[in-house]
Design a protein that fits this description.
Elements lengths: L12 H10 L23 E7 L2 E6 L17 H15 L7 E6 L2 E2 L13 E2 L11 E5 L11 E7 L5 E7 L5 E8 L8 E7 L7 E10 L6 E11 L14
């Protein structure tokens, strides 16, 4: 979720976005379809964040490291911790001025045994968590937060068969507004980027659904489906909501 949906004026987008992320999910979001899940430990507080030469230095409270200190020998649930780190890195790296993130706990370097890139003040990048990504990762539009522009610009990364990413855009009633495919820059064992512009027509502003998937090479069924809500602005001059796709 982006800082843009906050109701108050945002003076420091990086700080506000991270602080919003640390707040976890809102009521109903974990039960939604698709669901939002936070791996940030409860009670984690943002002590501060600075950005210098592409590196965001994030200072978190001890709750993030299981209540210990930055130099703790034992980190509670390392797998969940790594996912929490990934959520922070992927969120902050959306800002063009940030390429990596350095983590502090109460001002001291966060040290995770066995993770050399995190030691001695090392900074983590998106590439350090590539194995946690789904086969199809939608980067834009952001979950719940499209500006409604038409055409809808969709981009992300994928590791799918022959690099083919299938997509469809549905209106609020589930009717198909657009369907088609696009190509990632790499596929079948490697991850590549994809981008496509999706035109649509709706008579009134509404929440639609963007769906992306990989077609099975055996029977064409949908594999690795990703879907998320998107806001769609009304199309001037449109009197019917849907324009069925044949």
């Amino acid at each position: 979720r982006p800082y843009a949906i906050l109701s108050h004026f945002v003076e420091d987008p990086v700080y506000e976005t991270l602080n919003f992320l640390l707040g976890g999910t809102a009521p109903g979001e974990e039960e939604a379809d698709p669901a939002l899940v936070s791996y940030i430990p409860d009670g984690t507080q943002l002590q501060g964040v600075t950005v210098t030469d592409g590196v965001a230095t994030v200072d978190l409270s001890s709750e993030f490291a299981g209540g210990g200190t930055g130099n703790a020998d034992v980190i509670l649930d390392p797998a969940a911790m790594r996912r929490a780190l990934a959520q922070i890195v992927y969120t902050l790296a959306r800002f063009p001025e940030i390429s990596s993130v350095r983590f502090l706990i109460d001002g001291a370097d966060l040290l995770i045994p066995g993770e050399g890139w995190m030691n001695a003040g090392g900074a983590a990048t998106r590439g350090d968590f590539a194995d946690l990504l789904p086969p199809i990762m939608i980067e834009s539009p952001v979950y719940w937060a499209s500006g409604g522009d038409n055409p809808l610009l969709v981009d992300g990364t994928a590791d799918v068969f022959e690099a083919v990413v299938s997509l469809e855009l549905l209106d609020q009633d589930g009717a198909i507004l657009w369907e088609g495919t696009t190509m990632a820059t790499c596929g079948t064992g490697c991850r590549g980027g994809f981008s496509v512009e999706i035109p649509f027509q709706v008579a009134e502003g509404q929440t639609g659904t963007l769906v992306a998937w990989e077609a099975s090479m055996e029977d064409g069924s949908r594999l690795n489906v990703r879907s998320q809500p998107v806001w769609l602005n009304a199309t001037p001059g449109t009197t019917t909501t849907t324009d069925p796709v044949s």
